[in-house]
Write a structure and sequence with these properties.
Length: 211
């Protein structure tokens, strides 16, 4: 699938092979440092979630990543254990009633995403890239726009331009907007662009801006 896309060259990657190598080195180094420096925060969140006594602290879910390979994304659990008890995948929204009290706090400040530093360290994800999606929703998106296959040319990211400016992707319309933003990123991306996205994300988190 990826080889067919590469041959068509309809959408080209803005990063050279060398830049992608530097990006991976940065991801590995920064995620390792982040895990060490933020270990006290991990401990505090672990204690807060453990005191709820309503399920595991960590949440794992299969997502589709680089080259279309599935992987388990890690997050601090923010929803009740019965959030998808009927087996039907559901999209999260900003004021989701399935959120636990601690989970709502973590979601509001994006602290539930911190365990993804482990995903970045292992190479399943990058700091910057398209948000990874479940196959159920990918199939629905591709019915509308098959260009989603180009997303597999990038490692999924913890943050992205779409994450910052498109907010919660809880409708098909917003999914398609996110896809177009991610495809634009693929064509224009650079190390400098990644740095700007990381700093913008950090600034928004520090000042409590909702996104």
């Amino acid at each position: 699938m990826i080889q067919e896309i590469a041959l068509e060259m309809v959408i080209t990657d803005g990063m050279s092979r060398g830049e992608r190598f530097v990006k991976r080195i940065f991801d590995f180094t920064a995620s390792l440092i982040g895990l060490i420096l933020l270990s006290p925060v991990f401990l505090i969140i672990y204690i807060m979630l453990s005191r709820q006594k309503d399920g595991p602290v960590l949440f794992r879910q299969e997502r589709i990543g680089y080259h279309g390979r599935p992987f388990s994304i890690l997050k601090f659990r923010t929803m009740r254990m019965d959030s998808e008890e009927d087996g039907e995948p559901k999209l999260a929204c900003k004021e989701d009633e399935r959120l636990t009290p601690v989970g709502r706090l973590l979601r509001e400040h994006h602290l539930d995403e911190l365990p993804q530093l482990l995903n970045v360290l292992c190479g399943d994800m990058s700091f910057v890239g398209p948000r990874p999606e479940r196959q159920f929703f990918i199939d629905k998106i591709m019915q509308e726009n098959p260009d989603y296959e180009y997303i597999y040319l990038m490692r999924p990211g913890v943050t992205s331009l779409a994450t910052i400016y498109n907010g919660y992707t809880n409708t098909m319309e917003k999914m398609l907007i996110r896809l177009q933003m991610d495809l634009d990123y693929l064509e224009k991306r650079s190390l400098w662009m990644d740095i700007k996205i990381i700093f913008t994300t950090a600034r928004y988190m520090l000042y409590g801006k909702k996104f």
